[in-house]
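Box S1 | Example of a co-folding query
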Amino acid sequence: MQTQKTARYLSLLPVTIAFAITTVMMGQNTITPKSEIPGKVEALLAKMTLEEKIGQMNQYNGFYDVTGPAPKGGGAQRKYDNLSKGYVGSMLNVRGVEQVRAVQKIAVEKSRLGIPLIIGFDVIHGYKTISPIPLAEAASWDMEAIKRSAQVGAAEAAASGINWTFAPMVDISRDARWGRVMEGAGEDPFLGSDIARARVQGFQGDDLSDPLTVAACAKHWAAYGFAEAGRDYNTSDVGTGTLFNVVFPPFKAAKEAGVKTFMNSFNTLNGVPATGDKFLQREILKEKWGFDGFVVSDWGSILEMKAHGYAKDGKDATFKAVTAGSDMDMESDLYVTELAGLVKEGKVDEALIDDAARRILTVKYELGLFDDPYRYCDEAREKEVIYNPKYQEDVLDMARKSIVLLKNENNLLPLKKSGQKIALIGALAADKSSPLGGWRIASDDGTAISVKEGMEKYDGNTLTYAKGADVVIGPATFVRELTINEDDRSAFAKAIETAKNADVVVMVLGEHGYMSGEGRSRAQLDLPGVQQELLEEVYKVNKNIVLVLNNGRPLAIDWAAENVPAIVEGWQLGSQAGNAIAEVLYGDYNPSGKLPMSFPRSVGQLPIYYNHKSTGRPDEAADNMVFWSHYGDESNEPLYAFGYGLSYTSFAYSDLKVKPTKQGATVTVTLKNTGSVTGKEIAQLYIQDPYASVTRPVRELKGYELVTLKAGEKQKITFDLTGEELGFYDNQGVWQVEPGQYNIFVGGDSDATLMKSFEMK
Ligand code: BGC
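Box S1 (continued) | Returned holo structure for beta-D-glucopyranose
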């Protein structure tokens, strides 16, 4: 049987190729039945030497132009030799059918047992056709669209020979300084768990052996998003309550959705590097949750335990990692060099090696690699799938849904479609690479639709473009520290002149796509370089500004929020960024996104998140303006709260009813579109447990519903709350559902005021 997705894919193809592929796939349908996999794995393990089993636990980065002659000498030679000996179980960053086939051929044809490689790659938000960055996608709260976006990335990557993605990243983060917030789903564990599930399902599909799906990887286990001060790779100290209630849930959701692999993380957690953490990998993941896939280390993280001050040397690090449950070594090259010795010395039980190899081999069987090691290597399929035009529709749909309207004073938006002089300002407005975002290593530069191109399609207005200022100077690459333009104002004058003569000014400002992501922490969260200055200069001559933000993280844009009449959060929206933004600006798409992460007013507020705990002094008392929990120079409130986002219409909530049930409560509310155009609202339900055996957050998201209503239309929405939503993990990590009062809030963001309480018996 073809899966639905494959059928969909075939429908896109010319008949002859579709026929050829169907024929190949009929052969592929003879893959090993699931029930036979354990027996086959055991039989294979019995044939393997200790070194071969350890080889399965070794992952190398692409090391050589493998389609060329074998390397001579040096590290590449050793890696090549190990591959031929069967001492490599996986490779990453080898891509394209030709390259993958070449490495696979060495593993399959040269090594004694011919065990195929599993080929990993970071398909984070697309492969060639690029989706919005994951944080942007999270703003859609639309699980179908997110799943579809993951399917697109999986299909293109799989067609390119890859069968394992290092995604989804499910790290919760409360600190926008951390560059990797762009890769996750924001600050909320409830929304984050749904997104984790959707992404795993999107990548893996229903059948892992489908050649258009890939194995997924929940990362980074764990608490990587709690890096102190938002500085990447930094220490995490997280208490048990926060671990179980905030950090773990999206990982658990990924596990329950059947994710095949986990990746551990670079950070220490409470003094132990995650890579060497037995509590995380063995006790929680493998024992408590019963995860039967495998855990890969992060890049070199086994060796990094030395720098952390946790391992004496490579050998000690190897011992600690394998004992803790890290099954595969990404690029430390330590398992192949140290592990056999440790087993022979009796320090590491061979059963641990068997367990790790068993897990890895099982996933390879499930991917169908033993039935056909070249199953993902089909040139015709690669040609047809990569950049298939249909995928542009999918990522456009995702991009539209990711946009958040932050401000729209006097209905400046949507723009009129004719008779207007529009000034378009900002280097990012014409940038065809930056919208591709930060994690798009396979993508082709210059392939995104820029905002300028998107807007030019609306030709009833006069559009004049002026750069105003560059954001970065020189080339922007994945591995290069960017040089921000701090002093070149030479293009200001032209931009100001252009703005002076315009009816409306659209300014596209923010971060370059490579300003967020791994290693891209920031200590300031303003508009980088001279962009704030440019904004203020333009404002002096024309106040009718629509600010379109391009950014990989929440920004502190208090001046703009105060002064600029319209603000659109346009993130980095991928291949179709400019089309999606133009459609929103012109009202052909009514924005519906809601922020998945709080926007601070200033960096000093960080970490800032809506689901914080109360203090003993939460409010300013009338007779005491000092001794309460606050800043003397800044509000406690975020600039834009979690869940916030406007529409071109308006919505009203009324008639909130909370009816206690045996399991919890049924909540109903009436939502009405009180504006003049059709719109989609993301109705949100928050709970508060006002007193409990352990203090609970002031609010927690526990339900949401995407509702599209015509002008004037209303709809009753129902939420069912059970112990699953009302309970929490205590400080021993034990699930509790406590009787007593619960407050229920329903509305369009985390500041919702409509409230009713009920008693849980
Ligand atoms: C990142 C991972 C990534 C890996 C492989 C590491 O530096 O932390 O998220 O999957 O590299 O590229």
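The chain has a mean pLDDT of 95. The longest strand covers residues 651-660.
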